[in-house]
Design a protein that fits this description.
With 335 residues, the protein is an alpha/beta fold. It has two domains: 214 residues, Rossmann fold (3-Layer(aba) Sandwich); 100 residues, Magnesium chelatase subunit I, C-Terminal domain (Helicase, Ruva Protein, domain 3). 48% of the residues lie in helices and 16% in strands. It is built from 14 helices and eleven strands. The two termini are 21 Å apart.
Length: 335
């Protein structure tokens, strides 16, 4: 009984702390909404990536403000932004930097590449070959870059936001599973609603974009990241997350035997880590100090859609990873 009382007191204290720490979220969202019209889901997912120290893969047809959203976020947070346009002839040195011979000094000097920023936009990431992907992989996973025999730690926060165009497949390289797994979220962006598009059209024709101000400091972001870790997650919620992940690997154990021939591989342990972290971030954005099942359900598609491999049989039956996630979430008992 005493333990229960202590727990409720703790949750109340955490709640108060989170409410205080998350005050900037509304401010940041308002600032981004000055330029980005209607893409509420995308803005929320960018914030989850920022708070959860994870990278984001945005997929959508051209013209849906993917690049603009990332640029706007970097302006609203006092961070350094760089953009790399991925092309088939891109070299690893174009991303991470290289060593240049200095004739005056008679020595080699290091010229840092665009990866040395807080926000890195990897535009059309699937257009670059494997060598470039592997160079980016070290930065994403290890948060460091090696040029020659020197290793540099990247500044925090460091966030890679990659875009992928699902329409054009000519001259593109499918991302390796190992790299896709490094993205915390894969966000699929849809067309805006008609009234939103009308507003977008008006703004572009009149040039009526408002100036985006830097409303949040990098220190605030780093402090918020530490606060996110303190968001309370009950053991029942942890079990719920693990049930969802394990159902992608062993569907027959969860009364989902019909999915066994549709899944070629399930989510890795990164899936459970990122689902737990994204749920905490979602609770934080909702200014709550504890995670509820609805938080898990809100982010589960973005965390798992790129982590479930589908078989040829599934493709023949037009079953997507989205459909598999829906079936799993509907079957697993909510705590």
């Amino acid at each position: 009984m005493i333990e229960e009382t202590n727990k409720t007191v703790d949750i109340r204290a955490i709640n108060e702390k989170i409410e205080k720490e998350s005050a900037f979220v509304d401010l940041l969202t308002m600032e981004m909404n000055k330029v980005i019209v209607g893409q509420k889901n995308m803005i929320e997912r960018l914030l989850i990536g920022l708070l959860g120290n994870g990278h984001i893969l945005l997929e959508g047809v051209p013209g849906l403000a993917k690049t603009l959203a990332i640029n706007t976020l970097s302006q609203a947070v006092k961070g350094e932004f760089s953009r790399v346009q991925f092309t088939p002839d891109l070299l690893p040195a174009d991303v991470v930097g290289t060593m240049i011979y200095n004739m005056k000094e008679n020595d080699f000097m290091i010229k840092k590449g665009p990866i040395f920023a807080n926000f890195v936009l990897a535009d059309e990431i699937n257009r670059a070959p494997a060598k470039v992907q592997s160079a980016l992989l070290e930065a994403m996973q290890e948060r460091q870059i090696t040029i020659g025999d020197t290793t540099f730690k990247l500044d925090e926060p460091f966030l890679v936001m990659a875009t992928q165009n699902p329409v054009e497949q000519e001259g593109t390289y499918p991302l390796p599973e190992a790299q896709v797994d490094r993205f915390m979220l894969k966000v699929v962006i849809d067309y805006p609603k008609m009234d939103h598009e009308q507003l977008i059209m008006r703004q572009n024709l009149t040039g009526g974009f408002q100036k985006v101000n830097a409303v949040v400091s990098l220190e605030q972001i780093n402090s918020a990241r530490n606060a996110v870790k303190e968001v309370y997650m009950d053991e029942k919620i942890e079990k719920y997350i693990l049930d969802i992940i394990f159902a992608t690997r062993y569907p027959e154990r969860y009364n989902l035997g019909d999915l066994k021939n549709l899944i070629s591989f399930g989510a890795s342990p990164r899936g459970s880590i990122n689902l737990a972290m994204a749920s905490k971030c979602y609770a934080f954005i909702r200014r709550r100090g504890y995670v509820i099942p609805e938080d898990v359900r809100a982010v589960v598609h973005d965390v798992l859609r790129h982590r479930i491999g589908i078989t040829y049989e599934a493709e023949a039956e037009n079953v997507t990873s989205e459909d598999i996630i829906n079936k799993i979430v509907n079957e697993i008992e909510v705590p």
